Every structure is written in structure tokens, then in C-alpha cells.
Amino acid sequence: MDFEIINGSVETLETECLVVALEAEGKLCPSAQAIDTAANGYLSDLINSGDISGKAGEQLLLFKVPGIKANRVLLVGLGKPEERKDRHYRKLIKGITATLKKSGIGSVLFALDGCASEQDDVYRETRQLVEWISADFYQYDETKSKKADPIKLEHIMIKLDEEDIELGEGALLDGVAIANGVDTAREVGNLPGNICTPVYLAERAQALAEEFDELKVSVLDEEQMAELGMNALLAVGKGSAQPSQLIVIEYRGGEDGEKPHVLVGKGITFDTGGISLKPGAGMDEMKFDMCGAASVLGTMEALAEMQLPINVVGVIAAAENMPGSQATKPGDIVTTMSGQTVEILNTDAEGRLVLCDALTYVGRFEPQSVVDIATLTGACIIALGHQATGVLSNNESLATALLEAGEYAADRGWPLPLWDEFQEQLDSNFADIANIGGRAAGTITAACFLSRFTKEYNWAHLDIAGVAWNSHGKEKGATGRCVPMLCQYLLDLAEQVEIDEHDHDHGE
Ligand code: BES
Ligand code: MN
Ligand code: ZN
What we know:
Elements: E1 2-6, E2 17-23, E3 27-28, H1 30-38, H2 42-48, E4 59-63, E5 72-77, H3 86-103, E6 107-110, H4 122-136, E7 155-159, H5 165-190, H6 198-211, E8 215-220, H7 222-228, H8 231-237, E9 245-252, E10 261-271, H9 291-306, E11 311-321, E12 332-335, E13 341-344, H10 351-361, E14 369-374, H11 378-384, E15 389-393, H12 396-408, E16 413-415, E17 433-434, H13 442-451, E18 459-463, E19 469-470, E20 477-478, H14 483-505
Parallel strand pairs: 1-7, 2-5, 2-6, 6-7, 10-11, 10-14, 13-17, 14-18, 15-16
Antiparallel strand pairs: 2-3, 4-5, 8-9, 9-11, 12-13, 15-18, 19-20
Helix pairs in contact: 3-4, 4-5, 5-9, 6-9, 8-10, 9-14, 10-13, 12-14
The structure holds ligand BES, manganese (II) ion and zinc ion.
Zinc ion (ZN) is lined by residues 268, 271, 289, 350-351.
């Protein structure tokens, strides 16, 4: 599937399907108006005869509209002006891609004239279009014997006004990079636990480094982690036959010596709960417990594709959480890499155990910021449902940067407090900290646990338990969240670097 920005008068553009829009009460948007004029009132007649009125969700696929070059016209309704929020725009695109999929059309031209979304932001609208069309055409068939039919839609054109072309082309490049990152996160996320093991994650990272010169990967095995004293991480993999891995992906796009921004992903390739075994129902979904790791992989890929002028390190803490004769038991106490001791009261609170050592490890990069991404707590689903990523941080401006990035990228987060009062819930009689804090405020106490290991730098924690995958029906599968939020966060950082350099060049 390839994307292209084009310009010209719609009636003369060649495509198998031209998508144009009308607003509520039959008001044609500019491109639709141009088609109507070229076709001698063909569209107006349809409105007058009541075949379409412009309600949100309406569609009419028209063949051989006279007076124009396109083979088909897909006329879509946008509804009332207040129905132009992100969620309406998303639904509109879903409706269009569903029609395109059914029809087997090979090329399409979008001429929505900026009418379909509320903001006057060509870059954002165009990028969203690219990301969402790509996402809608994602199909998983890696582990099916019968492969999915190849996608017939090959060529997607987006018509913009002359003066918007440059912005549009930037949006297209970023959009394709982010879409590829989302695709990777979904693909890796969807793989079953018997294929997607910690070693497999390491191999995926290495494959990424083969593809992009800007990426360098190194992997620590259990022996190397033991030498570093990463006993909390190692405690999680002890019941499993699969060796744990610490995967480090370095992207150097910024100045030499400029300190990196770090992303740390939870990579539990299957979470049985360990000796604190989870109930059986729906346990298959715990193959998705590496979606934080998958979002790091996807974001690093997009970053390399966008070639942003910053330094970023992606780290994946990978282990399989199984019960076994060697498994960690409730009450076991380990000494973490930081030197703090942890009483593992519940082996199902394993994400924080692999993350705490990874968070200590990344201190060596003297990072400008550290963001960890984890399917950490079921409690986050209770707090925020399946809409928002939970955002907790020891630094207000970092939290704001992530929240704003999520808002812009239509991949939203929402803040939760990290007050010291919550820390007491982690008190232990036998170690420095317990790994659980009771039923109340489960997402916050999990983040409190992590905060004990992140005092040296600016840090934020993203709990993606509610957003990383869909559980039901045909939609069941990884979503690729929060790759768009993270990519936007990095785009914003890169933009800031460019502004600073510009100011510097001008002696300010
Ligand atoms: N991976 C789970 C969290 C999870 C559960 C995410 C369900 C999405 C859906 C995590 O390792 C876990 O088991 N957390 C426990 C923590 C508890 C033992 C303090 C939880 O949320 O129940
Ligand atoms: Mn668990
Ligand atoms: Zn888990």
C-alpha cells in the first residue's frame, strides 16, 4: 500500500474511486461541489431525491458519474458541525475502509477538503488519515495455514490544496512511519507465547538493527544480568524454561554526547501469575503482557524511519512468568540491582520486578528522561477503562509532554497521582519494600514501587493494561497503543532540538 499527496481539479483526476463528502442537510464540500458541477447536478439530484442527506455514517458508492475522470465516486456524510471530533473522523475512515475492502478497489483518492475533522490542521488530518487507513487494513495471518487474501487497495492518494502540499507530504512520511511502528507492535503483540519468547523479542530487535543503520542492539543474558545483580528481574523468569533477556536498542540521531531519552518496555511474554497463579478464564490474553515491549520495538522502528535528530535508547525487560519447581514463591526476598530488598508477596505482581532492575540499569545512560511502558495492572482497566493510558510521573513537565502528545496523536493518556501518602502501602516487615500494596489504588501503588528506582532522573510510567489489546470477537488482538503517543512525544522533542539549534545559530 502506498500513499501520495496530489493536487489538481478533482473532476480531471484519475482514480478507481474518488471519495468526496457532504455535510448535514445536503451541503456539498468543495470537491463534491466541483464533481456536482462537472456532472451537471448529478449529486444534487441524489440529495433532492432523498438518496443521501449528509448524516454522519451515510455512504453512497456511485458508478460512472458523468463528466469526470474517476471510475467511481464514494459520497460520504459528515453530519452536523459538532460531529467532527476525532472519534467521528475515526468512524468515518472506518466506514470508508470497510467499503473499500468489500469492493476490491485498487486505487482511491481522498478529497475531503479538511471538512471531515474539526481542527484546521492539515498535517494532523493527513497523518491521521494515513495511520488509520493503514490500521484498518492490518490483517494477522502469521500463524494461520491459510494466508489472508492480499490487499487489493494499492494506491492511496490524498488531494490537498497547493499551499498545503509541503505540510501534507511531511504528514504522509511521519504517518507511514508511525503506521509501520503500530503494525509491528500489533504483529509482535499478537504472536502466541510459544513463539514470542524473550529470546524471540531479542531476535526481533536484532532484525530491526539489521534493517536500520542508525540502530544498534545488545542483549544481556541471565548470566550477565546476575553479575549486575538484577535479581528482581531474574526472580520472575526462574519458574520458566525460557531464559530472560535484557534487550537494549540504541538510536543515535542527535549530537554525539547528547544524553538520550530512554523508553523501557515490560516484556512478559506470558504471565501465568507464577505460583500466585491466575484463574484460568481468559488467561490466553496474558500473551499480550509484552505489549509494552512491542510498543518500544514499534516506536524505535518509526523513530529510525523518521530519522529524528535525537538520541533514544529503547530497553526491553523480557521474561516468562511461570510456576515451576524453581519458581519464586510468595514471601521470597530478593536484592534488586539498586541494593534495595523486595519481599515478593505476590508473584503475579511481576511486571514491576522486571521493570525495577531495568530502570536501575538505564541510569548508566544519564538519561534526559525515562518513560516505561507496561501492561502493569488490572486496576488501571477499572480506573480508566479501555480509553486512556494511565500516566504517572515524578516530573510535571514530562507528564504534560506525554499527555499532550497523546492528545495530538489521538492516543490519549490520563494522569493519576503519585503522592507520598500512597508509598506506605508498600511497607514490609521483612524487606525494604513489598511488591504489592493491597487492593486500593493498585495502579498508583505499582507506580509507587517503580518510583523507588527512578529517583535519579525524570521519569514517567505509562500503564497500558486497558488499551494495549482488544479482548472480544473479530477485534480481539493487539492495538499498537501507545506507539502513536510515544512517536508524537519524540517528534515534539526533536522539534524542540531544532528550535534550540536555530536559536543558537542566530546567536540568541
Ligand atoms: N499483567 C498483569 C496486569 C494485567 C491484568 C493487565 C489483566 C491486563 C489485564 C500484571 O502482571 C498483574 O498480574 N498485576 C496484578 C497485580 C496485583 C497482583 C497486585 C493485577 O493487576 O491483578
Ligand atoms: Mn502478573
Ligand atoms: Zn503481568
